[in-house]
Each structure stands twice: as structure tokens, then as C-alpha cells.
Amino acid sequence: MSASLTANHSSTEQDSEIHTRAGVNLCRHLISAAKNNPDDLAVAVQTATGSMFSTKTLEYQELNFSELNQQSDRLAHGLNAYGITRGMKAVLMVTPSVDFFTLTFALFKAGVVPILVDPGMGVKNLKQCFIESEPDAFIGIPKAHLARKLFGWGKGSVQKLVTVGGRSLFGGVTLEDIAVHGSSEPYDMIWLDADEMAAILFTSGSTGTPKGVIYSHKMFEAQISALRDDYKIKPGERDLATFPLFSLFGPALGMASIIPEMDASKPITANPDYLFAAIEKYQCSNMFVNPALIERLGQAGVPVGAGAVDEASQHKLPSIKRVISAGAPATISSIKHFSKMLSDGVEVLNSYGATESLPLSKMASQALFGTTAITDGGGGICVGDAISGVDITIIAITEKPIGIWSDDLKLQAGQIGEIVVKGPMVSRSYYRRDSATEQAKIQDGEHTRHRMGDLGYLDSEGKLWMCGRKAHRVDASSGKRYFSIPVERIFNTHPQVKRSALVGVEVNGQSEIPEIVPLLCIELDKSLACSLGAGLYAELNAIAEQHKQTLEIKRFLIHPEFPVDIRHNAKIFREKLAVWAQNKHKE
User: Which parts of the sequence belong to the AMP-dependent synthetase/ligase domain (predicted)?
Assistant: First the structure.
């Protein structure tokens, strides 16, 4: 094994030198941890056993850094022996588990490109993902292989099949077979060029068609650096990891990843007691959660109505020193409620980014609380300052591709436009989606800027404020432009409104050509005895007249329950609501 694999690198300059000399591979961090801290916990996976009619027993499977490194080495040897080798693409549909960790690190060590998809995106989207990516291998649990057979996933391209956690009923071999044929010798890890394809991560499709984002190890390294430098994560910490991809960064940071018993694609269904038990058992110092979990854990840990005099009814998380929230903007009210379980001074760090580029900026909860009045007044949601090394700019709203970057494209502070980002964690292209790449990427010398598809502005201090998706704005025939987040947050201040969604509908005015007008869909708070009479609409109209962002909004429709994405339970499918609203408006 070469010295460059086993040396303990303590500075960014040393890391950069290694990348130049030998290429990149994030597994170098695991190898270093296995050498320097072999007995430290790397992974712990919680499982709940027992029947549905009895109290579940929580059990834990653990690996230290030495075991994780050795087992991933053995699997890398075994994958090669089976014919899965460098440059091949392999679908990985394995639930968060010890096998998920050992397999993923084995694939990275072997230079095999894992294809990671969100099972929650739906059968139709999944099939399209596999058509586009043309995987050479399919590695999955038995349920995934059954779906592969039923729906024809990867038909015509997949040559190698590996079943994880069961028998190979649909061909190929089991993971146990792979391990048996693997060597116990250290694996000679593959080093890739900085921008060489290391993985394909498909977007969830919650804000559009799923697209395969090409990840390089340079991007992974940038994400690891951000977590270490900007979020101050240190070796020896323990993280309650609820998102599979980011759970891999734990061992890369010398931090143990604690995986709770839950469906990672549907966090809203998680059992809070299981998560609390995992945090307590391992004294987790970090949590990586999305807004749906923040709300669910807050409701469970701090029952509604529990005040300072009822401390006994509140769950406390004294070991937690940092909470990282990402995926969608969490509401200020849910963060405040959740924070009652945290020790004084512990913040929820709200991160902004996307599959194509993450993280980009962060906003600590105490600072966020100070922006409530601006947000409620239609000023957008503050997502904070840029991460080190990230450049955030705002350009004018346009649907046209922009091939070459020019500083003349920048808008002034306070002007709302499309958010454009540049940094080492920004992806260069989509996989086999030239049109999407052309639409989203801007070449800036040797660097690539990414158009986020989100609208916002930079304030005078350089902080970024979100104003919603570009596709969700409403350009009314009157000439006025409405932005989703500013408009909706104004109406969300009404005590009976749970959430709202801005859409545009066509109406027949004086002209034969239909006019586009803004309409607000309203979902009421079911916990309240809500009035549906003329009084409610009068109050909504009164709110609209008080703000320049909502002037001329006169149309409101009550919707029983908004369609939202299953992962975050926060991203509203406004396209579906727009169709519903148009049909209702014609009735």
C-alpha cells in the first residue's frame, strides 16, 4: 500500500498536494481513520424487532473504523472478481444499513460509479432514471430486484446482479457470495482525476423532472471540507444521520454515523422514540435532519401546551451540540418549538443548497428568529451567508440559456432575480441531459456556475434571501410579477392558515385573449375551528391590501390538503394545485 494512502494529513495544503500527485478519492479519509483510530466507532445501525402487536426491541449493529475499512476492502476485491470494475455504473438500492456503508465505500474504492436514486420519486420516474443512466450492474435488496423485474428497470444494460439481505431469487449473486470471493488483503484503491465521474445522484423530482447529477470526488471533498470548516464538525463526534448520502460523510470526517430505524424516503413517518433512544444511547452531538423531522420530533418531544412549569413532559437532548437542517426551508415556528429540547446556546443551522450544489449558505436559528418580521412582511426567507469558497450572485430572470459568464449579468443588492452559484461543490453537468446542462450551467473560465432555478436577492450585508422557485412566479397580465415565498408568507400570518400556495389562472376579461391573474390556494389549520364564510375571505382581502407584494390578489380557494413531496413534507406541488385551481375557477 502506498504511503499516500496511509499518511495522516492534517491540513488543506497537504490534501491539495495529494490530489495533485495521485488524484482524489474520499475513501482516503476512511483509510486514515482506520490507521489512526481503528477502534473508534464508525457506524451504528438501529433496528426495531418484534411483532406489530408487541413492544419493539431496539437492537444495534456496530462497526469501528478498522472493520469498516477491512470489510469494504473485501467487498471491493469481491466486486472485481465478479466482474464489476472501474468505470462501470451500478444502481445501489439498499436501505440504510451496515451493508449500505461497506458497499458504498467498496464501490468508491474500486472506482465503480454508484447510481443513487430516491425511491420516493415514483415508478415512472425511476424507470426513466435507469433508461438514461444505462447501469451495468444492479445492487439492491430483494424488494428492489422484484421491482426491477416487474417494471423492467435497467433492461438491456444491466449485466451484473447482486442481492443484499436475501437470496438471489432473480439471478446474479448475493452480497455474501461477493464477500466470500473477496480477499482479506488491503485493496489498492483507485485514484480518480479531480473532475472524473465518481457517482450519479438523481434529483428527487419534487421541483421538476429527476435529473442525474454527475458527482466527482472533488465535489465530495468540498462538501467534507465545508462540514469540517464551516460547521466545525470534529473527529470523535457522533451524528444522528437521517439522510443516507450524508451519513457517508460521518466516517470521512472521523465522526460516527448513527442510523435510526426509519424510512429515509418518508421522514414524516419516523418513530420519534426510536430517534431519541439512538441519540441517548450514543450521546450524539450532531443531528442531520430535514424540516419534516424537525416538526415531528418537536411535536413529540415538546407536547403542545407544555410550558416552563411542565418541564417533566418535555424531552431534552443535552448531548446535542449542533443541528443541521437541509432539504427545504423549515418554518420558524417549528424550529422554535424543536429548540426547546436543546441546551441553551445550541443552534439549528439551516442550510441552503440542492443536489447539484450543497451546501451553499447557512443561517443559525437565533439569527433567523430576528428576521421574522421581514419574512412575515413579504421580504422572503433569509438563508444566510455563503459557505467559505462559494460565490453567490443574482442575475435577471430569463428562460434563455447563458453560455458564458460576465460580471455585467450581476444585479444590485436588493434586486430579485435568479440565484447563481460558483464553488468547489458545484456540479459541472447532468448525465446525458445536454439540454438541461445548457439551461442550468454557465461557463466562467475554468469554473462552472450553476443556475439554481430559485429566485432571491442579496441584502446590503451580502446575506441571501429566498423568494421561491423561478417556475413558481406568476407574471400577471397586468404587468405585475408575484413571487411565491413573499406572497405566501404574508397570508400565512393569518391564524387560520396552515399554508398557502400562489398560482396563476386564466380568466376571460374584456378581451378574447385570456388574462393571467394571481390566485391563492389556502390550506386551513385543521386543529382550529376554521370559518369558511365571507368573513375569512374579507380578512384575506384585507391582508392583501396591506402589502405591495400582494396588491391585486383578489382570488382565494380553500384546498382540503395540499399535495407535497413525501421526503420533506414541505415542497408543495404547485403545478398540481394550478390545474386544480384552474378547473375550480371555471366551475
Answer: 34-431
| DSSP reduced 3-state for 176 | helix
Q: Please give the mean pLDDT across all residues of the chain.
A: 91
Q: What is the pLDDT of residue 489?
A: 96
Choice among 42-56, 156-170, 216-230, 561-575 with the minimum mean pLDDT: 561-575
All residues at 6 or more sequence positions from 335 whose CB lies less than 8 Å from its CB, including other chains: 294, 325, 348, 350, 365, 368, 369
User: Distance between CA atoms of 119 and 266, rounded to whole angstroms?
Assistant: 10
Pair type for strands 555-558 and 160-163? unpaired
Of the candidates 286, 320, 346, which is a domain's last residue? 346
Its domain, for residue 299, covers: 231-346
For the CA atoms of 392, 395, 401, 407, the dihedral, rounded to the nearest 10 degrees, stands at: -80
Identify the bridge partners of residue 417 per DSSP, sorted by sequence position: 456
How many CB atoms lie under 10 A from the CB of residue 388? 12
For the segment 533-539, the average pLDDT, to the nearest whole number, is 87
- How does pLDDT run across 95-123, given as a tens digit for each residue? 999 999 999 999 999 999 999 998 778 88
Phi-psi region of 247 (alpha: psi -120 to 50; beta: other; left: phi over 0): alpha
| CATH label of the domain that carries residue 87 | 3.40.50.980
E-strand ranges in 102-237 read 113-116, 137-140, 160-163, 173-174, 197-202, 212-216
How confident is the model at residue 531, as a pLDDT?
64
| pLDDT tens figures, 541-587 | 999 999 999 999 999 999 999 988 766 666 888 999 999 999 987 76
Query: CA 304, CA 298: separation in Å to the nearest integer?
Result: 9
> CATH code at 483?
3.30.300.30
For residue 16, what pLDDT is reported? 42
Q: How far apart are CA 376 and CA 88, in angstroms?
A: 50
The contacts found for 259-265 with CB under 8 angstroms, 24 or more apart, are 259/43, 259/44, 259/45, 259/46, 259/96, 259/97, 260/46, 261/46, 261/47, 261/48, 261/58, 264/95, 264/96, 265/118, 265/119, 265/120, 265/566, 265/567
Least confident of 291-295, 346-350, 399-403: 291-295
Helix (H, G, I), strand (E, B) or coil at 32: helix
pLDDT digit string (tens) for 252-309? 999 999 999 998 888 888 999 999 999 999 999 999 998 889 999 999 999 875 454 4
Domain count, the chain: 3
30 & 172 share domain: yes
Dig out the grid coordinates for 75 from the structure. 467487498
Same domain, 58 and 177: yes
Is the peptide bond preceding residue 486 cis, with omega within 30 degrees of 0? no
Q: Which amino acid is present at 111?
A: G
Quote the pTM value: 0.91
Of 210, 190, 193, nearest to 201 by C-alpha is 210
Full DSSP string of 402-444: --B--GGGBPPTT--EEEEEESTTB---BTT-HHHHHHHEEEE
